[in-house]
Write a structure and sequence with these properties.
By secondary structure, the chain is an all-alpha fold. Helix content is 73%, strand content 0%. The C terminus is likely disordered.
Length: 347
């Protein structure tokens, strides 16, 4: 039987998500900086160093790091550097699709949106949570053994490796040998400074206490639905204030500003749909609910916020920062739900 060319990485979703968020953050950061500084020229006279070159340097650094060094930390660093580089690179797309090198070419934003939507769909496909093959479970377990080789594998990392091997073919000699090896490995305390370790411990305990409260699920569901409703109300307010021009848009008389409002409305409706689905799923599975909230937050980050930023520039930064904090909180919550036994919630 012919072996496959590619084997899936269980960290793919986290790495690709980090790449996307880094790309969006760097793109908005560059536009925000240029807006504040009056779009300065880097260079003198006829010389201008376009920031697309800096994007290329970051992507080159990501490739060099990924090809030269081993480990999951290297993967995350490469995803971060690559995302920053891609965001800085794609920001100058307008210069390369116009004959006069027009950075401010208005349709550029739409093209960038389409690129990020395509990447999101592609990354979702590549990292979809389907059952891996036995070989993939074995390979992922072996990759995570790097912590044991480094002498700093903690009990959580050891447990994750055992969970992967439990899903592999139990009749395989490789699975049996790896399980035997893992059982003999000693663990060390989590390699974190004492204050950070105490903070994380308190955070974990606070998380458990929160979900033992009677109305915790309703509160979380309401939080995300409220955020989605606020975005929808803001868009509807913009449509009402510009009702005549919106009518012209539907008649085929396209206006760039109204295209942004319509795009923001569509993305906000999608976000609201995911938020409502998450609120419903909170009744029986927090992990599934958090996954819906994560998707809503990602769409807000790299789609809705783009439309808002294109219309009101730096005033969109607080909303972007809020969604970035929400995404980090959801990553923590998903980690708790997927890697720990679920806490009992009183009905």
């Amino acid at each position: 039987m012919k072996s496959p060319v590619f084997y899936r990485n269980i960290d793919a979703r986290d790495n690709l998500e980090l790449f996307l968020v880094s790309a969006v953050t760097s793109l908005l950061g560059v536009r925000f900086y240029l807006y504040l500084t009056g779009y300065p020229q880097v260079g003198s006279g006829s010389l201008h160093i376009a920031h697309v070159l800096f994007g290329g340097l970051f992507m080159l650094a990501a490739l060099v790091v990924d090809l030269s060094f081993l480990g999951r930390r290297t993967e995350r660093l490469a995803a971060l550097l690559g995302g920053i580089g891609f965001g800085v690179f794609i920001d100058e797309l307008g210069k390369f699709v116009t004959s006069d090198n027009n950075y401010f070419f208005r349709p550029t934003i739409g093209i960038i949106y389409a690129i990020f939507i395509s990447l999101y769909l592609l990354f979702n496909f590549l990292s979809k949570t389907t059952k891996l093959s036995s070989v993939e479970y074995q390979l992922n377990a072996m990759m995570q053994l790097e912590e044991a080789v480094r002498g700093d594998m903690d009990h959580r990392e050891k447990r994750n490796i055992k969970m992967l091997l439990d899903k592999a073919d139990q009749s395989s000699i490789i699975t049996q040998e790896l399980q035997s090896l893992v059982e003999r490995l000693d663990t060390v305390p989590a390699p974190l400074p004492r204050l950070i370790r105490k903070f994380i411990t308190r955070l974990d305990h606070g998380y458990v206490r929160f979900w033992r409260r009677r109305n915790s699920s309703q509160f979380i569901g309401l939080l995300f639905i409220t955020e989605a409703a606020i975005f929808l109300l803001l868009v509807l307010g913009s449509i009402i204030n510009n009702f005549d021009t919106v009518q012209e848009f539907f008649k085929g008389n396209n206006n760039y500003g109204q295209e942004l409002i319509i795009g923001q409305l569509i993305s906000s409706v999608v976000v609201a749909g995911y938020a409502i689905m998450g609120a419903i799923k909170l009744r029986w599975s927090r992990a599934e609910a958090f996954e819906q909230f994560r998707r809503a937050t990602l769409i807000n980050l790299f789609l809705t916020q783009f439309f808002i930023f294109s219309r009101i520039q730096f005033e969109a930064i607080p909303g972007f920062a809020l969604n970035l904090v929400l995404l980090l909180a959801l990553r923590y919550a998903l980690h708790q739900e997927l890697h720990h036994r679920p806490v009992v919630v009183r009905s």
